[in-house]
Amino acid sequence: MKTITRYACVVLSAAAIAFSAGAFFKVNAMPTYTPGQPVDLTYATEKALPAVVHIKYVQNSKTKTVEVQDPFADFFDPFGFFGNPGGGGTQRRQVQTPKRTATGSGVIISADGYIVTNNHVVEGADELTVTLNDNREFSARIIGTDKTTDLALIKVDGKGLPTLPVGDSDKLKVGEWVIAVGNPFGLNNTVTAGIVSAKARSLGANGVESFIQTDAAINQGNSGGALVNVAGELVGINAMLYSQTGSYAGYGFAIPTTIMKKVVDDLKQYGTVQRAMIGIAGLDVHAHIDQQKEKNNEVDLGTNEGVYVQKVEDGGAASEAGIAEGDVITAVDGKKVTKMAELMEALANKRPGDKISIEYMHNKRTLSKTVTLKNAQGNTKVVKSADLDVLGAQFREITDAQKQQLNIQNGLEVIKVNAGAMKDEGISKGFIIQRVNDMQMRKLDDLQKAVQQASTGKDPVLYIQGIYPTGKKAYYAVPLE
């Protein structure tokens, strides 16, 4: 379970997360309750428990090369006669990392075994074991992850599995009863109850967030579990708690299903989230006003609510629509926006290329513009996560003999070059890749990760550093578009 120890002001480009409804989420009609009447949570509990799973995370022991300080190295070997010239007392050593295990929760959303959980529950796992409420166990594989929203989609091979209907978190009201279902502290199949304490909370923990706050007890191990309304519908994925001690202190936070549904749909269809950008950096108006007051500056924006535009990205959607620094965004597609988290969630049904109507204040005058949203790369195309095939080459980890001969600690040797991005940039057989985009290359997984991150990022280029067998060092920029 993520623990947030203080609040942070979110300053980032508004990201649009779209929702595509389909057969992947089957929502059945559920009973409702009458406001003001006693609430019975047994129905919701009976629906939720079979669909909430225990996830065991295993990261196997690994050998890593680390740099350590030797306080006597320069004293005994000031000129580097023993292989450490100019090392400043730093030596590289291999260490064995311990095997790591952890637990979390997940929610089955389809009868054939798709499960939603948090990214931080599965990130870096070598093995994932899913245990159902009836004690059946399955091995799970990761379909896709999204660190920006802290969501992940995993899959087990099963049929007829119990599922939890996905509800509309937009319809939640502050004060409404909910239950949190998960596996805190290894206590499987635990249900706690509380109310929705607030909506559209922003903690500065993820790149995109608009949390549901609840006082239903959420603790370590609840990560990835279900937040469920009285109708037995999934309305959020439990993600973190706010505490100064690391244990529950009355504040828990869940990712709303308005965000979850789009992320899951994209991970299943594209392998990566299609996130549309409005192209601004901003913060809540009241936060901007408070900052100015601390500087003894008078400020009158014509409103005390909305998103204050601190910066407009050149060539971005907002810039092309004429939105400028100092403007205040107050509504999107007719829906009122009072803070940054609401702006993110208001754009939750959009993809790059979609047009939205933005209402904003410029010099205290209310204006309206139509904006065409873009992706992180500045266009409206679908962003797909690339794999090693795009490079048109084959690789292998270097041998101990190569390390000794070239006096290097790590690298991936290019053993074959076909048509592709590497050949286009002049990289030939025998070249040893040591670093890509400031990441050290030790295993093929390192290169795969670098390719995936670059292909979906703002700058889809691999900046490669390496060495040839002759000892000649080289540097290449390999575009992935």
Q: Number of helix segments?
A: 10
Q: Pairing-aware structural class of the strands and helices?
A: alpha+beta
How many DSSP E strands? 29
Distance between the termini: 37 Å
Low confidence ranges: 5-30, 79-83
Helical residue percent? Answer: 10-25%
Strand content: 35-45%
Average the pLDDT over all residues and give the rounded result. Answer: 84
Explain what the structure shows:
This protein is an alpha+beta fold and 481 residues long. 15% of the residues lie in helices and 36% in strands.
Kindly summarize this structure in a few lines.
With 481 residues, this protein is an alpha+beta fold.
Write the layout of secondary structure elements.
Layout: E1 2-4, E2 15-17, H1 42-48, E3 52-59, E4 63-69, H2 73-76, E5 90-96, E6 100-108, E7 114-117, H3 119-122, E8 127-131, E9 137-146, E10 151-156, E11 177-182, E12 190-201, E13 211-214, E14 226-229, E15 234-242, E16 252-256, H4 257-269, E17 275-277, E18 280-284, H5 285-294, E19 307-312, H6 317-321, E20 328-332, E21 335-336, H7 340-346, E22 355-362, E23 365-372, E24 393-397, H8 400-406, E25 412-417, H9 421-424, E26 432-436, E27 439-440, H10 444-456, E28 461-467, E29 473-479
